[in-house]
User: Fold this.
Amino acid sequence: MSMTTVPTDVALARLLEQFRAGKPAALARAVSIVENHRAGFEQLLAAQHAVLGRARRIGITGPPGAGKSTLTTRLAKYYRALGLRVGIVAVDPTSPFTGGALLGDRIRMEEIALDPGVFIRSMATRGSLGGLATATREVCDILDGFGMDVIIIETVGVGQSELDVARAADSTLVVLVPESGDSIQTLKAGVMEIADVYTVNKADRPGADRLRNDIELMLGLRAGAALQNVPAHHGVDLRAAPDRDALRDAMNPARAARAAARAETPEQWTPPVLRSVAAQDEGIPEIVESLDRHFRYLERSGELRARRRARLKERVMEVVEQQVRQRLWRDAATLAWLEDQLDGLERGTLVPFAVADALRARSTALLTGASFAPLPSTSGISA
Assistant:
C-alpha cells in the first residue's frame, strides 16, 4: 500500500485545529515552525493576529549571573498559584564559532518544567544582537494566541545593549546584583533606561542597600526631582515653607524617587527599586505587586495601547525588511547581476549608491509580488 504525503496546507490546517483545541503538542509544533521560519509560519501567525493582546508580556533583563532564570522560575510559580497559565521564552547565547548553544535557562527551570500550566521555550540568539532571538516576538504571539495569561521573556543577559526586550514586553524588570558595578554604573544609559521595575537580587550580599540607594538617586536626578520644589533663596524664609516633607524630599533625590514610586498616579510612573533573594523565594510578592501596579498605570494612561501599537508598526517594518532581504539575496538573477557590477566598483567607475539604486529599480517586480496566502478552512478536517 503506497503512502500518500499530506499536502502542506492541509497539514497546517490540521495543526491549527489542534492548536485551537488547546493541545500542548500542537503548541510545541507551532512554536518550532515559527521559530525556524518553516513553510507556513506566516499563516500560523496570521491565524493568531485577531486574538493577540490577551496576555501580559513581562521582560526580564540584566547582567549575566544576576539570577534572572531563578527569578523567572519563582515568578512563574507565583502566577501559577494564582491559577494563571504562564509561557516562558528564555533566550541563551549562541557560539559565534559553532552556532550551538547550551540552553542553560531551561536546565535551571526544572522545578516548573513538568507543570502542565507552564510552557518553556529556550531559544538561541543565533547571532542576533539586542538580547533577544530574531523570532522572539513571533513566538510570544503564538503563546498569546494559545491562551497564555502571562508571557515572561528572559533575555540573554549581555549587559547595557539588550534593549529589544523593552519593545517586546509590556513591562520590563531589570535585575541587578551588588556586584553589578560601582555607583557610576547606575548613571549609564542603555539597560538602566528601559526598566519599569528594578530589583536588586541576591540582596543578602554586602552592598545591596547601597546599590538600591544609588539607583534611586539616579532616578531622582534623571527625573529632575532634585531641588525642583525648593524656593529661590533670595528673601525666602525657609522656616515658613508650606510643606517641610516636600522640601526634605526635594533636597534628597533618592528619597523623592522612592516616594514617587509609591504613588500610584495615571500621569507618571517612577520605577520602584525592590530587593529580592530569588533563591530563597524572598521578594517575589513585592515584584508581582509592582508589575501589577505598572500594568494598571499602562491601562489608565493609555501607554499600553501606545506600546502595543508601536509593536505592531515595528512588526510590519520587520516583515518588510525580512521579505526584501530574502527576495533579493535568494534570487539567482539578482546575485548574478550584482556580480557583474563588481568590476566597475573595483575600478571606481561605479559607486555603491548608484548600484543600489539600479538594483532596486530592476527588482521592482520581484519586490512587489504578493507572497502571503491564508490557511485553508479547517472544516471537515479531524483532529
